[in-house]
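idk why but the lab printer keeps eating my pages so im just putting this in chat instead. protein + 3-thiaglutaryl-CoA:
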Amino acid sequence: MQNRYATSFRGFDYLNLDEQLTDEQKLIRESVRSWVNTAVVPIIEDCAEHHKFPKELIKQLGEIGALGPHIPTQYGGGGLDLISYGLIMQELERGDSGIRSFASVQSSLVMYPIWKYGSEEQKNKFLPKLATGDFVGSFGLTEPNHGSDPSSMETRLIKKGDKYILNGAKLWITSSPICDLAVVWAKNEDGRIIGCIVERDMAGFSTPEITGKWSLRASKTGELVFQDVEIPEENILPLASGLKAPLSCLSSARYGISFGVLGAAMDCLHAATEYAKERIQFGKPLAAFQLTQKKLAEMLTDLSKAQLLAMQIGKLNNEGKATPAQISMGKRNNVEMALRVARECRQICGGMGITGDFPFMRHAMNLESVITYEGTHEVHLLITGMDLTGINAFG
Ligand code: TGC
Ligand code: FAD
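predcted complex ->
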């Protein structure tokens, strides 16, 4: 099974936003789009059906520059601007949210903190291999008892002589079962949140897989479990102090998601529009019914508004001016838009829409995770509410 409309996909640009892109940005988008058509589209339905992450694509993701595109070239990254980063995420998520998740975590949640908070030795040791896909990384913030409220985390990283001892567990961790290293956040003896790099072969470290997911089936998810893991001083992130450090990584990943989900929405809208033009009922194509046109026109409008939001936040981000609250608005609005589009497109295609010949069900099921991870839909609403009113309504 394969999305039969994937190869005729040309994207949507109803508001001529391409005029704001450089030739380099358009070229990057085209090259990732073409890679997705040849490497992801033919296998992704099968991967999702069989709950299989296509590990064979990891090195290719490195080759096309999707791992650490916004990390400086001296460490193996792409040295690209943040709109280019967003467009790469958009094209990957057009293929599947699981593939984008892998690249998001590797780029924004593993390479970014090592680059921003790591020592020169850590950068040189880990970043080039993460950029090629020789190393796979994961990011441990969420715990069994603390998801939306990471500041209450229970995992402890306590200094003992010239080493640190790590105890605790992280849950719902993308790529954990296959990771070579994990960037982990824990509290020290003073209750301050610090970060460290845990390596696969460290004694007491295990990564059980979570199976039976009905969402992100083409992505590996699991736990990170630490039982008296000895962390050498050289693996502590020296510049990370307080919750602000992991939250800044989330800002980078959430921004990527606000672009990424545009890809999932475009994939659905393209397939539904094409099918509606082909399928005849009552002697006319589905696309000739006003009710169908209303659905398609409203989705195009919502997609276009979401593209504007992502582009404007992208511009601010490139200038170092995007606030965490603006990024929350982009993530929240755009994920909800994409989820609504995936469901509506399924409806337009009737019974056919539930099959793997169309991408709707897979995208919709994936987006049920995307609307929860990187801060839930409710958390982002409360962040906007707090920014607007100055009142914290979390507690
Ligand atoms: P709060 O007091 O608000 O903030 C603590 C300090 O951090 C600063 N800050 C940020 N800095 C950078 N970026 C952000 N996004 C930031 N948000 C806040 C803040 O200014 C403050 O700084 P300072 O100098 O005053 O210390 O902290 P809080 O404990 O009240 O929590 C606020 C809350 C609820 C919004 C936050 O904890 C939150 O965002 N919760 C949601 C948790 C979450 O998003 N988890 C995601 C886990 S990773 C994941 O899901 C990966 S999925 C990857 C994939 O597969 O693609
Ligand atoms: P909870 O925090 O228990 O929330 C449950 C519900 O209560 C939600 O609807 C929430 O919005 C609501 N709620 C909570 N607090 C409030 C409040 N104050 N007001 C109103 N409503 C509230 N985490 C990582 O650290 N690394 C990863 O790589 C990672 N990958 C993930 C991959 C997948 C597939 C999934 C599903 C999750 C992943 N996560 C990861 C975890 C993710 O970030 C959390 O699931 C998310 O932050 C929500 O936490 P929770 O699931 O514990 O839900």
